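Q: Is it fine to ask for two folds in a single conversation?
A: Yes, each is treated on its own. Send the first.
Q: Here.
A: Result:
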Amino acid sequence: MNRIKSYLTIISTLLCLGINSAKAQDCTLEIRVGDNLTFTPPQLSISKSECPTVTLNLTHLGNLPRNAMGHNWALTLAENAQSVAQAGWQSGLENQYMPLDDERIIATTDIIGGGESASVVFASSLLDAKEDYTFFCSFVGHFSLMKGVFTVNE
């Protein structure tokens, strides 16, 4: 009987660890780009209550270098996305096509080329479930096609 209780305790502990691992994985978002102007997936979502921090991993599956077909991932309020992207074009590739010290930027990765990846970690406390957010690529000319919806749930 004690042996059965021990096994049940072990199984229960393992199940709890598995649930906690699944929750932790929900706070890591994966997005892919290539030698085209598409984010996959085009929508991302997080639960603010379950994810105090969010990790976004960007992977470029294409072949072209960053100066020819580079991509990044940037997050702003939807109302600021286009103006931030356009301001970034002035900053140049050496500044990741992002305006320097712009408080409208919530999170951004570096520009990457084919075969490269980049990550950014940010606090979900920067987000409000009542707001609309857009993620986009700020490489010159990419904004019109490379943008998506970022949803925040409480």
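Q: Second one now.
A: Result:
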Amino acid sequence: MQRRRRFLAAGAATLATAVACPAFAARLANIEIGLILMHGKWGRSPGPLAPYLEREGYRVRSPDMPWGARRLYDAPYRTALEELHLQVGQLRAAGARKVVVGGESFGANGALAYQAHYGDADALVLLAPGHNPGGWYRSGDTRDDVDRATALAKEGKSTERITFTDMNQSNPRKMIATVDTYLSYFAPRGRANMNVSARRIKAPLPVLLVNSADEAPTHGRAYIFDALPPHPRSEYVESPLAHGAAAEGARADVQRFLDVLAQA
């Protein structure tokens, strides 16, 4: 009986604290939100927002993805999505009531592709979405590599390793990957085409999309946001900042979006 009284007293004290301190109450709600934040191309984890959101009480995971500096296309896109699915399951098993999948640049691309394939995220946070295989193929930046890899795949040589040119904000870089892996990220109408992914998402869910000033003309609101099923809590923000700074500059937008989700 004495232990029960102590437990009830502790619970009452916690409730009183939450009522008296709205910030404490918000952190109690935040801890029920699991958040996966993916880095951009050639980037590393954690990104700039992860430590800040952890301090706000969110359960944050920042996995190293195949397009990052530590891995450099060591696995095809389908494997990246399988890795994310495992992370989502682990967050739910750990007690997350809602799981948000998001990222910056290629990480935002990954969040879209994940939801298009698995459809089990509760919300998406897309910060300065990047990686545009359709546009690069049309402009000729990747056409030779894609055509060569496609021909090799038709010859049954999908596991052959090839050298290709990667693009990152108009900065080319030579990379090596298998034919299968390369095409999974660079096929013009494949998983990495963000318009295709957005149109494959059927169930409405809250989406925050923060577009950078320099990316909006090539893949702006119509390319991604308007292709998604509409949801009353979805938001489109056009940042005045360039691609590399837009994600960190969106801190207030991300926190506001997550705070509303935590209270819902």
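Q: Anything structural to flag on that second result?
A: Two points. Residues 46 and 62 are 5 Å apart (CA to CA). The chain has a mean pLDDT of 88.
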